[in-house]
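Q: I'm writing up a methods section and want to include an example of the input and output format. Could you take the sequence below and give the corresponding predicted structure tokens, formatted cleanly so I can copy it straight into the document?
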Amino acid sequence: MIVEFEEQVPDFVLPHSVLRKSEGRKKWFAFNRFETPVSDLIASVSARFPIADLTVEEQEIEQVIRSIYLDHAERMQEK
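A: Here is the clean output for your methods example:
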């Protein structure tokens, strides 16, 4: 989820998500859409700060596959 605020805001914790990038008035949050409804995240953010624009993007399949393999590799190294 990419949020552009009406003014620059400090980095903050948004429950059930991870702040991936912060640049100027924009912040990029990653979340699991199967565990957390995007409407909950939007409500939480808009209750705290005025929003100028908001975009929700799906993760690319290549990134999903890469994450699966990296997670598997990390678990194998722990053994």
